[in-house]
Design brief:
- The chain is an alpha/beta fold.
- It has a single domain, classed as NAD(P)-binding Rossmann-like Domain (Rossmann fold), CATH 3.40.50.
- Helix content is about 45%, strand content about 15%.
- Strands 3-2-1-4-5-6-7 form a seven-stranded parallel β-sheet, sandwiched between helices.
- β1, α1 and β2 form a beta-alpha-beta unit.
């Protein structure tokens, strides 16, 4: 039985760990040839090698998503080695938790550069190659913080709200060319990114670090923290033919924590 993405070529930025790595694995299990794109070559290589050991097709590509030349070269390399691009997932991102008046220009600029400009450049690279073929799927990773603002998240929220606007704009502009563009808005999902900021969140809520995840659980209607697999399954659905009449949407995957 063939997979839902059999024969398709997918790019996943930020694919070297966390949610991105799980999307890569899930897509490969469903028959896609996957380009694991990450600024960390070693991390990307490990994910790609694990996929190949499981009889999947994958390659690792080192790429800085904020650099147009890097992104375009990565896209060319993928098409040369794996074939025409069918799916592009803009997943690479950064996050900082700190009071607004402590947010430096450097932190603001980096957050917008990676999260929003990175998605912009990825979308341009994908659409340039998909439009002539009149077919393609783009998935942009937003967040529940792209749905509702929150204290100590100004730069992150701004970037993730922007991703939803970008998604809707491109969905309208390129629907007639057979390109679907959607976003995913994950809730709390423990990833290596969270490991670096859990102390900051604890300070924000006057909690101990070990209490943070329990605090989140108590505020999620479904009563549990999200898993990378939850997000990967949503990405699989949006990338597949099962979603062929869905574009311009931002899908909440947050256990009911955000419903609008």
């Amino acid at each position: 039985m063939s997979g839902k993405l059999e024969g398709r070529v997918a790019v996943v930025t930020g694919g070297g760990g966390g949610i991105g790595a799980q999307i890569c694995r899930t897509f490969a299990q469903q028959g896609a040839a996957v380009a694991v794109v990450d600024i960390q070559q070693e991390a990307a290589g490990q994910v790609a090698e694990a996929i190949r050991r499981s009889a999947g097709r994958a390659m690792a590509v080192a790429c800085d998503v904020t650099d147009r030349d890097d992104v375009e070269q990565a896209a060319d390399q993928v098409e040369q080695e794996l074939g025409p691009l069918a799916i592009w997932v803009n997943n690479a991102g950064v996050s900082y938790i700190l009071p607004f008046l402590e947010c430096t220009e450097q932190i603001w600029d980096q957050t917008l550069e990676v999260n929003l400009k990175g998605a912009f450049l990825g979308c341009q690279a994908a659409i340039r190659r998909m439009a002539p073929r009149q077919d393609g799927v783009i998935i942009n990773m937003s967040s529940q913080s792209g749905r509702v603002g929150n204290s100590h998240y100004a730069a992150y929220c701004a970037s993730k709200f922007g991703i939803i606007g970008l998604t809707q704009s491109l969905a309208v502009e390129f629907a007639a060319q057979g390109i679907r563009v959607n976003a995913i808005c994950p809730g709390v999902v423990p990833t290596p990114m969270w490991d670096t900021q859990i102390e900051d969140y604890a300070r924000k809520r006057d909690l101990k670090a070990e209490e943070v995840m329990s605090y989140f659980e108590s505020n999620i209607p479904m009563g549990r923290i999200g898993k990378a697999e939850d997000i990967a399954q949503a990405a699989l659905f949006l990338a597949s033919d099962e979603a062929n009449y869905i574009t311009g949407q931002a899908l909440n995957v947050s256990g009911g924590a955000v419903m609008y």
